[in-house]
Amino acid sequence: MEQLIENTKPPYAVLLLTGFSQILLWGGSYFLLSVLSASIMQETGWSYQQVYGCLSLGLLTSGCLLPAIGKVIQHTERNYILHYTGIVMGIGLIIIGLATTYPLFVLGWGVIGVGMGMGLYDALFASLGKLYGRKAKKMIVWVTLIASLAPSISWPFTSLLLHQSGWRHTCFTLAGILMISIYPIHRYIFPPVAATVQLANTGSISFRTRIFYLLLANFTIGAIITTGIVVHLIDILSARKIDMSTILMIVAFLGPSQSAARTLELLVANRSAVEMAFISTIAMLLGIGLLFFHPSLATIGIITFGVGNGMRSVLRGTLPLAIYGPEHYPLVIGRLARMPLIAQAAAPFIGGFMIQQFGTTIYLCSLCALLLINLILIWKIKSYELHFQKS
């Protein structure tokens, strides 16, 4: 039997708290090394590859666990997975703060990876879809809109802690914040017992279907492109003979443009998820294309790419919900998350190799080719969508 709330919509307090919890969780994991890496390398002598390789390890751990996490969310009434996210992630941060050897540092990131799988977007979307059904679509947009502020909030806050107490105590402080705050927030958002109505048992679901593989390929390519641009953006702009002060100004537009995209999602809520996927992919393709031309167009290119990428983050939750419905949504989200996260972990190394061997022009051409493939995949998804929902 599945559980689903159909007679209510999430209150604004739930929306705000869910977005706030995501800011804390992303700030304590994915965005952490952007601030702490230099201090960690300076103190320990570990290389750039060693430090950032641990973030890749965390993403790989998350991706490997998500199918099992989706299954737990699907088949249990009490959503304890999200309840204990902050505690698990906090333990990982404490291990990192105590690490005087590299294996211990690696272990800490492995634990953080478990927490990332338990509580970042994929597990959250699965939980919201189970609780609110198709009404979760608008909530996913709102939550990602709020959570898009994570780098803007977490980077200055983490930087302040770093300058006041060093990187180790920064990890301890963030661990304390996560361990104290996330449990009560998620317990309020996902109460152990909620007013629900019973759904009929819909049986099992096969993941060996063409539409599932189309979605999987689409999301995996999207993850490669997003990571490939964001991680190497400064190198790409530098190769276009843009000075560093201008580069920093251009990069600053990426976050706000992603937030603007999520606001746009609210304004065009009548558009289907597949239509939004077309718009998102075309915007990303156009944005990368503009980077080929005069440096004066780079800002417009980054803004356009950011809008498309912001929409893509929302589609990770809304597109599977539109196609599969809420009945098997947690299972689908968990299965769809593994390969994109593995690809996301590998993308920085592959991109770095391509830029070093072939230059940024060939690299950007490769990303554009992948986006064209994604357009074909979305067209195929649209073709199978109605047939799948009727079957």
Describe, in plain words, how this protein is organized in 3D.
The protein is 80% helix and 2% strand. With 391 residues, the protein is mainly alpha-helical. The chain folds into two domains: 11-191, MFS general substrate transporter like domains (Growth Hormone, Chain: A), CATH 1.20.1250.20; 210-390, MFS general substrate transporter like domains (Growth Hormone, Chain: A, Up-down Bundle), CATH 1.20.1250.20. Strands 1-2 form a two-stranded antiparallel ribbon. Helix 15 packs antiparallel against helix 16. The radius of gyration is 20 Å and the shape is globular. The protein starts with a strand and ends with a helix.
Summary tags:
391 residues, mainly alpha, Growth Hormone, Chain: A, 2 domains, two-stranded antiparallel sheet, 2 strands, disordered N terminus
Question: Strands, helices and their partners?
Answer:
Elements: E1 2-4, H1 12-27, H2 33-44, H3 48-75, H4 80-83, H5 85-98, H6 102-119, H7 121-132, H8 136-147, H9 150-189, E2 197-199, H10 210-239, H11 244-251, H12 254-267, H13 273-290, H14 298-324, H15 329-358, H16 360-390
Antiparallel strand pairs: 1-2
Helix pairs in contact: 1-8, 1-9, 2-3, 2-9, 3-6, 3-7, 3-15, 5-6, 5-9, 7-8, 7-15, 8-12, 8-14, 10-11, 10-14, 10-15, 10-16, 12-14, 13-14, 13-16, 15-16
